[in-house]
User: What shape does this take?
Amino acid sequence: MLIVYTGNGKGKTTAALGLMLRAWGHGLAPCVIQFLKDEQGRWGETLAAERLDIPWYATGAGYTFTTENLEHDRELAQRGWQRAQELIASGAYDLVILDEFTYVLAFGWLALPEVLAWLVEHATRTDIVITGRSAPAELVAAADLVTEMQEVRHPYYSGVEARKGIEF
Ligand code: ATP
Ligand code: MG
Assistant: This one.
């Protein structure tokens, strides 16, 4: 099954991590590949994954949407997709989460039709979760389950800073 969590509201990554936990609880094998996030990142979820012995790969240089080094970002993203392909094709995982992968697709860093065709062929016994804003229409059309998080209110706009355990 291909699952997409998209939209502007908060909750896309946390929804994916909820599935990770749910799968893990049943003794299934989840893993996470995080695109665009710094490899050095020590978020609550990476610490939890470490303790639960859930493989977690961060492939990116942090949030670099205004980067001078776009070529490097693109390369890291492509390397991340290669890693994802290895993990999926290994057959060792029941649930593979591609966090913030919509950006990689929306930026055209990977060819979406090729990514989708590859998943159809190889992710036969693996559920795939893709998160991130601006999911391309072709991705939405191909997915089995799509939820769009709609922002109603976010404390960021009343000056509340990111909080441990809520944002990271
Ligand atoms: P989360 O990881 O909390 O589930 P998300 O994956 O839906 O959030 P992202 O687009 O990945 O959202 O953004 C991650 C960070 O940005 C989080 O710290 C989140 O609280 C914050 N954020 C999400 N939505 C908004 C928003 N509409 N306005 C401001 N900040 C936001
Ligand atoms: Mg997210």
The chain has one domain: 2-152. Residues 12-13, 100, 131 surround magnesium ion (ligand 2) (CB under 6 Å). The chain has a mean pLDDT of 93. The beta strands are 2-7, 30-35, 56-59, 95-99, 127-131, 145-149.
